[in-house]
Each structure stands twice: as structure tokens, then as C-alpha cells.
């Protein structure tokens, strides 16, 4: 298979099996996104407002008025949200009051969203959702697109945390649909974040990372730097879940590096970081480090009343105790995590941990408690519910399963349409490639055939030269004398003349040396040859220029190549020797000089010539004999 065919096949395979057709971002791209983050942070002084530089914002707030002041106060809220809840709420309340005074409706809605988000951070999903639903009545994808995106994303977050995965996915996909139709970068950023969070909660970490990185693309584009810390944390977490704990630790090392250049990440983010790092260290058996990190995470969560984070942190600690064979502490933590999850309606935590407790109590010979938790788990899944909470769980789980089926069907239909369209595109590309390849192959074969004919002609001429040199060697002196007389007559009048007797003597001696193959001496040069001929270099150079129609170097190279061609034709062993040996045998001190001289003489490199020569002899040996050459009589 020639190179052209291989290249064509490779292009086709790349088109058919293009990894991007699966709409998955390769893991290698994580590094490229982190590098982009690093570059952005490196230039933070050029984007003080984007990086929520507090000194810059405080100074701006002192002089700002009207709507500009509202937006500055809202930026200060964002700057403090993960650092100081009190300061953040203070600035948000000021923005709310000023917006109401100015009848600045967008400012009022943004401040209300901030309150809803703060309630979500504290784990008060019910109150947060109430505010979200109120705001949602007043915004739309076209009227207030950014607020619409914020509210939709928060709704999806709350649904995910409650275990209402169908609503979470539906909300995220609806937002993504609006984003793609409007091509609004902010909506695309938020939609990808919502869907990433959904897949994270259902433990599809590959898709979660995929959407996370897509969202990060728009974060970088819009310079929404408040999301840098959370996104690095999410990427590290999902990298660990995809069985790359060392890669995850490297990402957290990057997190610490970034934190040196930016304001601190804040307690809310650090609680998540410590919890995730505990999971990573636990997965590689470094339990002491894991215990240190999960203890720190729980301390931050309880100190700041992050109800949202407590159940999951307690679960991590329970898993750690279980790994260190401390079953009693593990059971205690699982029970605490269920109690904390029930307080915020985190149904997925209740469901999973009740199943684990049922198994643990069975192993510790406590059948009564084991039955209780097994019953709870079964009630959540398929039994008739006995109280309002169980009813809610059953309904949500059933709706989630039904919605997943419908959503998967819808996704499959969309994928089928996309695949058909892609297939048509591939067919068109393949047809074009076939046409181009056919033309290219035809052109290549045509040129190759032409080159082969030229080469065969060169070989034939070399054969003729060999036969002629053998048949007329006896007439060489006569030809030389005739050549001297003929060439003497052609000497340009403008060129200095030398005595004919001297010239004939030099030429005769030169012809004699040619027969002795003087040119094969690697030390052969003008001065050495002139001493050998007992003449001066000036006369010798003039004779070669006038009689050989060439300078000394070209004259020597031509003698060497003319000597080589018959030898290549006659001597198979010599022909298949190493090129360096052939070059040295001709008097060349290096291969490059030999290659250059040969190509200048025949227009082809010696290696290619020898290959084609071997092929030509093979072809001739298989084909009918060519008629022998009939040489014309000379003179």
C-alpha cells in the first residue's frame, strides 16, 4: 500500500471515527483548560472588575451613582458570598433598597436571586425554591436572559439535591435549548453548569466532566471569575471519580497555586475541597490524611451552618470509618447523615444510606435495626407509603424513572437524526475524497510512468555508452586527436590562447590519466593533478575549460559518474553495496557531495536510481528480450 493510499484511508477513518462526533471532550483537554485559567489569572491586573478586586470595587462604589452603583454593590455581594455571608448580604440588601428607590427592576430581580442562592447555600431548599418560583414569573429568556439563566440553574440545582432528577434534567435541557437558540454565551455557561450538576448527582462522572468543561469554556470567554474555584474543585472531584486520584491531586495542587494569586476561595468552597480530598486520600489508602480533611470539612460546615454539605460530609466520614474497620463509628455517622439529609429533604442521601445501614446492622447481628432500615429503603423504592415524606419520595422516584425513559427516547431520536445527517455528510465527504484520490492516484501513476520511462531511457543510454566504450577503445587516440583539432577551432577568440603543442601534450597526458582512473583518488585536485602532469595549474585549468567545456570540479564529477554508471549496470554486488561505500570508492569524502553530484548529472538521487535500476532489470528479466543495439560506425 503506497503512502497516498494510506493517507486517504487515514482521513476517512478520522472522519468516520472522529472522537468529537460523540460530543465528548477528551480528558487531555482538562490540561488545556487549566492552562487557559492560568493565563487568565496571570493577567488579572488587567481585569480588576472581572476578578472582583475588592479594593477596586470599594473605590468604585464610593463614586458610583444610580444603576452603576447597584451593579457595583451586586459585584461586592458576589465577591464576599463565599468569604463572609454577613458582608455579602449587607451589600445585596443595599443593592435591593437602591434598586427599589430607582425603580430599577433588573437590579431588584438580581438581588432577589442572590437571596434565593444564599438560602440554597445554607441548605434551605424549600424557601430558596419559593423565591425562585416567584422570580420566574417575572423573567424570560428574552426579557432578562441572565436572570432567567440564574434562576433556571438554581432550580435545577435544588431538584438535583432533592433527588428530583427528572425535573433537574428537564430544567437544564430547557435552558440549554433556549441558550442554543439564542446563542447567548451566559445562558450556555449556566445551562452546561446545571446539566453537569445533574450528571454529578446521578454519578455519571464522564458526562458531568464533559458538561463542566463546556461550561468552563464560557466562563473563560466571559471572564466570570467567581466560578474559577468551584470549577477547579468539580474537575478534580470528577477526575478522581474517573479512577485518576493522582490526576485529581495535581488539579488540587493547581487550586492551591491559583489561591496564592487570587483572594481566598472562602469557607463554602473549602468545605467541598476538604471533603473531596478526603475521598481521594481514602481511595488510595492514605486514611490519616483522609481523616484530617473530612474533619476539617465537617468543622467548616457546622461552623457556617452549611446544611447542604453536612449529610454528604458525614457520609464520607462514615465510609472512612468503615474502611478502617470501625463499624460502630461508621454506623453512627450514617445515621447522622440520614437525619441531616431528612432535615433538608435530600432524598438521595436517605435512600442510599438506609440501604448501607440495613447491610451493616445485618453483619453486626442486629436484625431488628437491619429490618428497620431495609424497610425504609424498600418503602422508598416500591412499597405503599405510610407517611407524607415516604409518599413524596415514591412519587419523585417514580417520576424520575418515567422522565428518564422519555428523555432517553427523546435523546435517542435526536441522536438518530444527527447521525443520519452526519452519515449524509460523511457520504458526501467520502465521494469527494474518492474523486480527489482517484485524480491524485491517476496523476501520480502518470508521473511515475513518465519518470520510469525516462529512467529506463537513461539506463539504456548507459548500456549504449558501455558498449560503445568497449568497441571503440582502440580508436581512442584517433578520436582524441580529432577532438583536439575540432575543439581548438571552437576556442572563443576572447579567451587567452596557449601554445597548441603545450595544449596537446597536456591533453594527451590527461587522456592517459583518465584511462588510469586518476579521478578516483579522494585527494585529487587541480594542483595535485598539475604536478602529476608536470604543468602549472593555470594551463591545466585553461585546457579543461576549453577542451572539456567545464570547470575542474564538474569535470571530475562527470568522470566519476560516467565511470560509475557502467559499473552499476555490470556489477550487481557493487550496485547493492552501501551508498557510503560506493561514494568512497569513487573518491568522494562524504555522501552528501556524492548525492549532489549524481543528482546534478542525472536529476535523481543515487539511492532512487539504484532502486529503479534493480526494478528495471527485474522487469526486463520477466519480459521478452529487447532487440540489441546496432552501433553506427564512427568515422
TrEMBL record:
MF annotations from Gene Ontology: DNA-binding transcription factor activity; sequence-specific DNA binding
Transmembrane segments: 423-445
InterPro entries according to UniProt: Homeodomain-like_sf, HTH_AraC, TPR-like_helical_dom_sf, TPR_rpt
SUPFAM superfamilies: Homeodomain-like, TPR-like
UniProt entry keywords in alphabetical sequence: Coiled coil, DNA-binding, Membrane, TPR repeat, Transcription, Transcription regulation, Transmembrane, Transmembrane helix
Coiled-coil segments on the chain, per record: 395-422
One Pfam family, short name: TPR_12
Repeat positions for TPR: 271-304
HTH araC/xylS-type domain ranges (all copies): 508-612
Protein's recorded name: Tetratricopeptide repeat protein
